Amino acid sequence: MNFQLSRFLVDNVNHIECYLVKNDKIGFNDVTQEKLDLLEFPICNNVKIREYHHNNLCYSYERHNDSQKVTKRMYYIEKIINNNKFQIMAFNEEVLPVHQFSCSSELSHISNIERISYKVSNRMNIIVDKDDEGLSYIYLKYHHSDNVDIKKISNDFEKCFKKLNKLYSIL
């Protein structure tokens, strides 16, 4: 697969997420550690998170260390590629002070997540989010900066897509 990173780096995009999709769904209920071992990347983080969503804001609370974060996302591109195997979302994510997430009874979504991150590089992780219903969401997350070597990052994307394709074949 020839992934063209530059097509997604428009406007103020600073993050790209590539979700694994099968049968038009991004959640999988048969993901085991054995299958995830095919990724062959080291686990760099395993945390339990509670997220509250309201409009384009997300308040995240890490339950093991009381870390709190509010992020705001502005989406620019959403595209399905590689025979409907990947859903790519390019967006600008901004970290805000925690007090910017107002107390609201109009939350659009609350979720409890167990997040396992596999380190690909300093700017890229493969992430597996498991929710309360047992569904696992597998995605590649890339943090962009203007001073990165696009050719190297594109090669990292290719390497990850190969590993995710291998995982896709057994899900």
What features would you describe in this structure?
This protein has an eight-stranded antiparallel beta barrel with strand order 1-6-5-4-3-7-8-9. The model has no long low-confidence stretch (mean pLDDT 91). Strand 4 and strand 5 form a beta hairpin. It is globular and about 45 Å long. It has helices at residues 33-36, 150-170, and strands spanning 15-20, 27-28, 43-54, 57-62, 68-81, 86-96, 109-121, 124-130, 136-143. It is mainly β. The two termini are 20 Å apart. The chain is built from two helices and nine strands. It has one domain (8-170): Beta Barrel (Hypothetical Protein Pfu-838710-001), CATH 2.40.320.10.
Q: Topology, pairings included?
A:
Elements: E1 15-20, E2 27-28, H1 33-36, E3 43-54, E4 57-62, E5 68-81, E6 86-96, E7 109-121, E8 124-130, E9 136-143, H2 150-170
